[in-house]
Fold this sequence. Notes:
- The complex is a heterodimer of chains A (272) and B (305).
- With 272 residues, chain A is mainly alpha-helical.
- Chain A has one domain: MetI-like (MetI-like fold, Orthogonal Bundle).
- Chain A has helices spanning 2-35, 54-60, 63-96, 102-114, 117-131, 137-160, 165-173, 178-207, 210-215, 222-227, 237-267.
- In chain A, helix 7 (165-173) crosses helix 8 (178-207) and helix 8 (178-207) packs antiparallel against helix 11 (237-267).
- Chain A is globular and about 70 Å long.
- Chain B has a single domain (73-303), classed as MetI-like fold (Orthogonal Bundle).
- Chain B has helices at residues 2-7, 10-19, 23-49, 66-72, 75-108, 114-121, 128-138, 145-151, 167-192, 196-204, 209-237, 241-246, 258-268, 272-299.
- In chain B, helix 3 crosses helix 14 (272-299) and helix 9 crosses helix 11.
- The longest helix of chain B is centred in the first third of the chain and has 34 residues, at 75-108.
- Chains A and B meet through helix 1, helix 3, helix 4, helix 5 and helix 6 of A and helix 2, helix 3, helix 5, helix 6 and helix 7 of B.
Amino acid sequence: MKRKYLIGQTARWIAIVLALVVTVFPFYWLFVLSTRSSADALDSPQLFYVPDFSSFATVWTNSDFISAVLMSAATTALTVTLALGIAVPAAFILVRHRVRRRIGLIGWLLVAYLLPDFLVAIPMYAILQSVGLYDNALGLAIVYQVFMAPLAMWLLLSFFAEVPTEIAEAATIDGCGDGATLAHVYLPLVMPGVATTAIIIGMLAWNEVTVALALTIRHPTLPIVVSSFKGYASIAWGQTAAASLLVTVPVFLFAMFAQRQIVAGLTAGIGK
Amino acid sequence: MTSVRTAIPPQLRLQVGRRKGSGRWLFLAPLIVVMGATTIFPIAYAGFLSLFNWNWGARFNFVGLDNYAHLMTDGVYWASVGRTVSFAITAVAIELVLGLALAVVVNRLAGGVGWVRTILMLPMMVSGIVVSLVWKIMLDPTLGVIPHLLGAFGLKSVDLLGNPHAALITVAGIDSWWQTGFVFIVLSASLGALPEECFEAARVDGATSRQCFWHITLPLLRPALLTVAAIRMVDCLKVFALIYGTTEGGPQNATEVTQILVYRRAFKEFAMSESMTMMLVYSALVVLVLATAYLVYRKWGSREA
């Protein structure tokens, strides 16, 4: 029995190590590519070399890159603020009260999440241009709501539903209206859930490609600047890799501190 | 009636009065306004454009349903729809199998495995464009590290993204590298929450671990499996960034999924009306198929669970 257990454990660890190597290797390779000096870049791949961080300097001193960092930061902040601003009150009301056409509203959100990006982005291309929000962080943040708001609703509905009804009823009996119940009873209790929602939405907004590609031109977000490297030949691999890492590392650093919230968000509302 | 009214404490009475009001809609109004602006408005505009022959130029003639009629016989379009569906099915199948296998294996590991979870979660936090570029670079037939490593096994000049027969499956594989972690995290949480008693009872009755998996774990996981499969399916049917960053639809259109086709028609060839027609028909198909699947599941599928 003991021997069978050991064999089982060994087999499992071999499978896990294999999975971890496949998972980590592309990140390792990005690091390798970004730290090879450009003279080596055209050589065949090698495992040992002297690291050279000049690619990072090249990318970081590029003014397009800096303005993209600012654009991405602004877009992410606006997207999260808007999504929470519209989804928190709505999710609260749907959890707290029987709202007429509730099913219709939820169905609408589901269909909105299904819509392919360009169905929304191409008409928005024309609409945003006419209202002066094309190529603009606020314009992007508004268009992102087509899938961010349903996602925020999905997450917040499941977090709000965890608040015991008795607490909310007690607040009502004490004379709290809906606004006061949300502000003084629900929000303090579901703050971790709201934070989780903010983190998931922020990550998606930071990484978003399709809509940003369609709706920006002179003020692209970071992923779009990174995608502009794809046309270059292998001579620019070092910069491509450095730019890719610079986009990715902030998310990883953030995730290190917020891992529990991210897991809570990814598993929220899914049958356990 | 009046006596009952006076029996209710004043705060509560106020509340009862307020409930009849429309204050609740104020809480829902921002959501409804923004969703209206980002769904109904663009769809209506797309529907309007699809009745014309607009190419950003002065030509803006009403053509009725001609765009739809042409689309029905447009082989390029329907081929792209077929590719999107086969991409989605391939990617979701790989992700479900690998994610479930990883969840089961990690669940049975002895000792703390928090760091294993952390590492497996890394890929899904990366932007799709970064994922596609790193894999494109690694798969480069002349200087990529993967053909280089495969060369050590005697395989010469493997070009997975450049081969029309392999490209779509390769991109599905890249998607699996990206998103299997999501399936894993969700299933792992569900697996950890399964009632231990079921497994104990089965073991007492002499069930092997394989029997436990097929007859207890899988049926209990079904709601989570279906939800995560639906989420991944929807995302894969909207695939764009991965293919935009790797093959841009090539080689020989082998990876030209619908959103890539629409991007080319709209932003490179400026066929706005035509591309809007394509997107409307595609969206309607996706919504119809997924809604039907859901209703069929509600009616028959959930009965045995």
